[in-house]
Amino acid sequence: MAKLVVEISDLSKIFQRDSFAVAALESISLTISEGEFVCLMGPSGSGKTTLLNIIAGIDRPTSGRLRVLEQEINTLSEDRLAAWRNVHVGFVFQTFNLIPVLTAYENVELPLLLTKLSGKERKDHVLAALKLVGLEDRIHHYPRQLSGGQEQRVAIARAIVTDPTLLMADEPTGDLDAHSADEVLDILSRLNKDFKKTIIMVTHDPRAAHHATVVRHLEKGQLLPLDQ
User: Fold this and answer.
1) Which CATH number is 187's domain given?
2) What angle do CA 35, 155, 197 make, to 5 degrees?
3) pLDDT tier for residue 20 given thresholds of 50, 70 and 90
């Protein structure tokens, strides 16, 4: 039986807006097993990105139980939580978030600068990650010299270069044309199938959801049953 990497029970998140309380998530219960490719779907404002950020340790729940990789991450201090993220979580954003003055190689190397790897070890990791996403011939290119699809592939290489336990993707194809989107989704599928990466992806695109092994829908902060 596959090990559980995410265990969520009765989790809620409330944002305070002046005198109003806005419930982004209400009584969410969810488990994710090692090696699953989970897609969180729902309209804008359904809470899917909030849930992703909470699982990644970027945000904290208001109430409920949250256990990720056998760690109650909500009890960690900010410093310990940041260290936990650096080891266990790779994140891919819709807007790529590459640093424009750095080359593809330098962007991918950034997370490794927080590790104790030697320069040669960092180089080996960076080149392997860029080769995996098919960009070993673009290592010296700056983001402005790359297409949107290539930028997102660099972002994926940056997310996986530390070999994280969890790969999080927030609308990774949202800013891409159909061809580039398919390339990115094929890479994510390969990471899941060939490298057994546990992936959690937020999307509103049904085509993207077809690449997942599990699809869950959120609506108005609530997780719908599996058969909906």
Assistant:
1) 3.40.50.300
2) 10
3) confident
